[in-house]
Specification:
This protein is of the alpha+beta class and 770 residues long. It is 28% helix and 34% strand.
């Protein structure tokens, strides 16, 4: 294989042993929840011997599975995939489904065949999976199957994320037994029994650790939606127009809710699991992000040649009393709209399955089954078939992905309309979570009721199928009903409460921040002909506001030869802080003033934005910053002002990040040091304050406060031209800006910088006092 997959080891043997966890499966999993690559597939449905309305038959609820300590990782977007194993990384430029098929072929084994298995219990029976790939396929992987317009904003998260565990725990809830599976690879450097013993020791040592559930919290300002209610209703109405025009028969529309999140993602998972049991709970630690899913819906299952899908369509809220509950369930079963919706999707799934199944084998074994969940009822159908000889799990996945129940009918046109109307890529929402084994089995859920946690933000989407007689108001309410459990657990908000939208002040009025717009014809947008100031606000009080405004107004007069806009910015900031609920915390306010397109007498664009502020060192978990020298010296008189022409500094910051540093050191044309991409730079040398000489540099408001404060303490203020080497020879090198205050520099181009005790603290005390 020219992809490099041929370099991978194969599975040489398989160890299987029955184990006694001594605790509930979800609590055993908790011991491993903080390990990247952990994947938990947990059933919250009732386990009974006959079918009930909670999907409690063995087809959905029989097994709990925990995948641990991956020896292989596959991630990627588009046709760029990263395959990591044995501390090696391969970059593959290929279709992800092709790579997935090659990977499964290379690692395929038959657990009942000649593969050597070591079993300590002869009653193991047939488990659904002994070894394989566990993780997720994002909805956006559709773009690798069909040629579709891409008009949504990216989440910058993987489209595919799969792990091959070195340890697998499978619990059979029907027989009440739990099995430990360890695949032994062909390149194992240890003797087989020694390798197995080592893996077991690591597993049981971690299992024996004491688990204390962590805490979690969300932003106290609530949820922000990707749609306002009127926007969502207009989108529903647009879909109905497409329906009336004959473009589609049905389309699934969703809105995304987002909030700040801190704390333990697995604690959230447990709370959801205990609160709202469903058949396909899952938790994935994907390194820089985590997935928490409470899905009730199976997408596709493959067992030998037997194929099954269970589409869900039709939702109604639970009743407040037993009588209302029964009435709601009856109305859903007898709903003409929901019957048509489900029947349409069943036909779509039958068609998708028929592409890779034996002719005439696809049947609907159940139709319109009522399933009960905490907040809603659902209608479910079960479609089965026999996989055509020579077809594989990957063929089946490619033929059916993404599931028709969460796209629409016809599928391709529905996906085009979804991209047109939804502003952000769905990522995991309506993608799939589960496993593809190395021995021909597969079980994937539809990722609905699913949250992603990344960069201290939690987001999840909820939606519904739109048909020609859909009521836009009811469709909006249905999304709230579906998301109610997660919303209430996070914030105790009810479905009737308004969701939070960050607010901005734009051209004299408050608007939702995502509605703040500047004309594409504006010189401020086209040329950066404008200015901005970033101001720290402590519990509603702007810090050094007068000095910031003086600098901005002076720059406006200098650059644009006119009178600065006459705005009482203090009042604007006060209003902005109140509107965003930031009065009791530290926040950052950005003021923007720019030239406008001069239509209807409008010559300036004015805006102000506010956000919560967490100190940069707290985010980095460091005591100072590391600098790297930007390779392009700067020479422009615009450096004297804080202009919107900011691309040079943005690129300098990106250069620093790609070189494992925090800030870029900006040089003058003569290669002496000027500043960093966001800060002024200075040195404290005993009783001397050393500033850096530069023909053009931003006159820092906070730096001027430092200068004034140290002058009162009889420091001598010197301005020097310093090369990088000369600067790095000093101790007590600091940077300063309005948000951070003074911060130590730890390294310059890798050279350690020493600091005397208390110097940085003294500077920050001056800033606090003044």
């Amino acid at each position: 294989m020219n992809t490099g997959i041929g370099q991978l080891p194969r599975i040489d043997s398989l160890f299987i042993e029955e184990v006694d966890l001594g605790m509930a499966f979800e609590l055993a999993a908790a011991r491993f929840a903080q390990d990247p690559g952990t994947v938990l597939l947990l059933s919250g449905a009732k386990m009974v011997s006959d079918r009930d309305q909670d999907c409690g038959d063995s087809g959905c609820a029989r097994y709990n599975i925990l995948a641990l300590h991956p020896w292989l990782e596959l991630k990627g977007c588009g046709k760029t995939l990263s395959l990591e194993f044995e501390n090696r990384s391969l970059v593959l430029s290929q279709d992800p489904f092709t790579v997935l098929g090659q990977l499964l072929d290379h690692l395929r084994f038959d657990p009942s065949g000649p593969l050597e298995s070591i079993k300590t219990d002869d009653q193991v029976g047939d488990l659904p999976v002994y070894a394989g790939l566990f993780g997720y396929f994002s909805y956006d992987l559709k773009d690798r199957i069909e040629t579709l317009p891409r008009t949504c904003l990216s989440t910058h998260l993987p489209e595919i994320c799969l792990y091959a565990p070195s340890v697998l725990l499978v619990q059979d809830r029907l027989v009440g037994k739990t099995f430990l599976c360890i695949p032994v690879l062909s390149n194992c450097h240890l003797e087989k029994n020694e390798y197995i013993s080592a893996r077991k020791e690591v597993f049981f040592n971690q299992l024996d650790q004491i688990y204390e559930s962590g805490l979690f919290s969300m932003d106290d300002r609530g949820f922000k939606s990707s749609f306002t209610k009127p926007e969502y209703i207009r989108s529903v109405e647009k879909i109905i127009q497409y329906l009336n025009a004959g473009d589609i028969y049905q389309a699934n529309l969703s809105q995304r809710f987002e909030t700040g999140f801190t704390g333990d993602a697995y604690a959230l998972f447990l709370k959801l699991f205990y609160r709202n049991p469903a058949s396909f709970f899952s938790y994935i630690h994907s390194g820089d992000h985590k997935i928490v899913s409470t899905s009730p819906e199976r997408f596709i299952k493959l067992d030998g040649s037997r194929v099954e899908t269970r589409p869900i369509k039709g939702t109604i809220a639970r009743g407040g009393t037993p009588d209302q509950d029964r009435d709601n369930g009856w109305h859903l079963i007898h709903s003409t709209k929901d019957d048509a919706e489900l029947t349409m999707i069943v036909d779509l799934m039958r068609n998708d399955l028929s592409r890779v199944t034996q002719s005439g084998s696809v049947v609907v074994s159940e139709h319109k089954r009522l399933e009960t969940y905490e907040n809603v009822f659902h209608l479910v159908s079960i479609v089965k078939g026999e996989l055509e000889k020579g077809k594989t799990a990957v063929d089946l996945l490619r033929a059916t992905f993404p599931g028709g129940s969460i796209t629409g009918c016809p599928k391709i046109r529905s996906m085009e309309i979804i991209d047109e109307l939804e502003p952000v890529k769905r990522h995991i929402y309506t993608g799939s979570i589960g496993y593809l084994s190395f021995h021909g089995t597969m079980d994937l859920s539809i990722a609905i009721r699913t949250a992603t946690i990344v960069d201290k933000t939690l987001f999840f989407s909820v939606g519904g199928g739109i048909v020609y007689d859909s009521d836009p108001e009811k469709e909006f309410q249905e999304t709230l009903d579906k998301g109610q459990t997660l919303m209430e657990i996070l914030s105790n908000v009810s479905s009737g409460k308004e969701f939070f939208h960050s607010r901005a002040w734009v051209d004299g009025k408050m608007v939702d921040q995502d509605q703040a717009m500047v004309s594409a014809q504006s010189p401020g947008f086209q040329y950066g002909a404008g200015l901005f100031e970033t101001i720290r606000v402590e519990k509603g009080k702007p810090i050094r506001l007068e000095a910031h405004l003086q600098r901005m107004n002076s720059a406006w007069t200098s650059l644009f030869n006119g009178t600065p806009p006459d705005i009482t910015w203090e009042h604007v900031i006060d209003l902005l802080i109140q509107e965003n609920g930031l009065g009791n915390r530290t926040s950052a306010v950005k003021i923007v003033v720019s030239r406008d397109e001069q239509i209807n007498g409008k010559q300036v664009f004015l805006a102000a934005f506010a956000r919560p502020y967490t100190h940069r060192l707290d985010l980095l978990g460091k005591k100072g910053l590391d600098l790297v020298t930007f390779v392009h010296p700067r020479s422009t008189p615009l450096a004297d002002h804080k202009t919107l022409n900011y691309l040079y500094y943005e690129r300098a910051g990106e250069y620093a990040r790609t070189h494992k540093a925090d800030e870029a050191l900006i040089l003058n044309p003569d290669l002496t040091v000027s500043e960093t991409n966001t800060c002024n730079l200075f040195v404290i040398d005993q009783k001397e304050l050393i500033l850096l000489s530069s023909a053009h540099v931003l006159p820092g408001v906070t730096l001027n406060t430092v200068i004034d404060g140290l002058s009162l303490l009889n420091f001598t203020v010197l301005v020097k031209k310093l090369t990088i080497e000369q600067l790095a020879s000093y101790s007590n090198i600091l940077v300063v800006n309005a948000l951070m205050g003074a911060v130590r520099i730890l390294h310059i181009d890798g050279k350690k910088i020493d600091h005397d005790r208390g110097v940085c603290e003294k500077i920050n005390q001056i800033l606090t006092d003044r």
